[in-house]
Amino acid sequence: MNAHGTSNPTWINDASRARSLKHLESNTVDIAVLGGGITGAGVALDAVSRGLSVALVESNDFASGSSGYSSKLVHGGLRYLATGDFSVAWESAVERRWLMSVIAPHLIRPLGFVIPDRLDAPRSQGILAGAGVLLYDLLRRASGLSGTILPRPQLLGRKAVTAMAPALEPGALRRGLLYWDGQLIDDARLVLGVLRTAAGLGAHLVRDLAATSITATSIEATDTRTGSPVRIRARTVVNATGVWAGDFDASLTLTPSRGTHLVVRAETLGHPHAAHTVAVPGHFGRYVFVLPQPNGLVYIGLTDEEDHAADGHHPQIPEEDIDFLLRIVNTALVVPLARDHVVGSFAGLRPLVRAAARNATGSTADISRRHLIHDVPGEPITVVGGKLTTYRAMARDAVDAASTRLGVDAPCITKTLPLVGAADRTRLATVDAPARLVGLYGTEAPAVAALGRTDPMLAEPLFAGTAITGAELLFGIRAEGATCVDDLLGRRTRLALVPADAAQAHRRATEILAAEGIRS
């Protein structure tokens, strides 16, 4: 890594990794966190912001598991209201408030959701949906989230519904309901933002360190780059490995749930301006979502299937998932989607805790999204379950447990701690950089744009049809810990979600890595 690796305390790269490994050779930290997804990142930030010394260990790339392959929503849990899980809905609404107003307003935008009221559905269904949406908005107001960030819901006529979601069959509609929720520009970028904020406060973050065993006070690992053994010593250890948590805590009964999404081009669906839902017949409160993205794509998801055999980093997507999603969504479209409209797909595994199920014999859709803190004296603390929106609350509870063990009395401050790049919406509107970059990097957008001015090749789009430039890849290497093409195209950008796009960018990514002295 070149000298650029030391220019900013929040930067994560090979140089910061080497410094952290050297420090950890001879120092014991207060808390060692295992897992570099959103939960582990949240634990690291919460702990270091309380003044504790922290090490975080990740076996692969940051956000390379479930945290990078979600529906990319920061939502208050409308579905949980429908199923009566009011505590999860309330916790989600409160966490959404802090994320959208303080923690990461640069990464989250308001997204309208249309619930179509179809002529072939009972009128009572539309009435129930309306009552649910009104209750959902009451939660939004009670949480303190301003209506200037998420507007109030409203009733839409048929024409208004099809103006926002042009692919819907207008002749099948009675009317529609519009409500608003939060959409992450990119879930992997949220993980990186949390990690970089933790690094700026002094946390030691080490990727490519595969844990082989853990105790309450140590992590034994192997450096996958060199094959060397590494021992991390800590006063307490937190297991935040998601679907892998059971590998380090045999007492847990986890149910991995596969959530599959399909990727289509926005033009295929008439460039929708809002998301919309399609009810799954026979499953009250369950929907397939059609989610327009700011990058010209639309995600259609998601499934909720138990899958114990899946690879947590690269879950295989079975044909029945694709068939299910297309079959459900096509019931509402003017022109049905065909297989060749699908340009990509992705799936993540949710680490659901079966013990929290309302009905242990039901599908994974019936398992509560509550999180669990498993705190047994003499063993590592395990935090598992939950959902992306509530990662901060999960981290708070885990660090509270660790603080009790350590005899530390320091309050959690993360609900009012902005991530690197964050600012209020008024300030973000004045950042001197392209709006697309501001949406990805916030106040750091000018620094990314400036990299493009150092070399004309860095300012150019990676290929015709994308706005992503070489400067963004270079920033991913220097500031965000990327070390290979897969990191750059899979998580620092999301080009890999459309394999044909990733193929066009592969050569440029390899060249930029090589210019930084990294062979990929």
Short description:
With 520 residues, the chain is of the alpha+beta class.
Please provide a written account of the structure:
The structure is a single chain. This protein has 520 residues and is of the alpha+beta class. The chain is 35% helix and 22% strand. Strands 3, 4, 5, 6, 11, 12, 13, 14, 15 and 16 form a ten-stranded mixed β-sheet that branches. Strands 1, 2, 7, 8, 9, 10, 17 and 18 form an eight-stranded mixed β-sheet that branches. α12 crosses α13 and α15 crosses α17. The protein is globular, with a radius of gyration of 22 Å. 53% of the residues are buried.
Tell me the distance between the termini: 13 Å
Task: Give the biggest sheet.
Answer: 10 strands, mixed
Stretches with pLDDT under 50, minimum 5 residues? 1-5, 355-368
Percent of residues in beta strands?
A: 15-25%
Topology:
Elements: H1 14-26, E1 29-34, H2 38-49, E2 54-57, E3 73-74, H3 78-82, H4 86-103, E4 108-118, H5 123-143, E5 154-156, H6 158-164, E6 173-184, H7 187-200, E7 204-206, E8 209-214, E9 218-223, E10 229-239, H8 245-248, E11 254-265, E12 275-279, E13 287-292, E14 297-301, E15 305-306, H9 319-330, E16 342-353, E17 371-374, E18 381-385, H10 391-406, H11 425-428, H12 435-441, H13 445-452, H14 456-459, H15 470-480, H16 485-492, H17 499-515
Parallel strand pairs: 1-2, 1-10, 2-7, 4-12, 10-18
Antiparallel strand pairs: 3-6, 4-6, 5-6, 8-9, 9-10, 11-14, 11-15, 11-16, 12-13, 13-14, 17-18
Helix pairs in contact: 2-7, 2-10, 12-13, 13-15, 15-17, 16-17
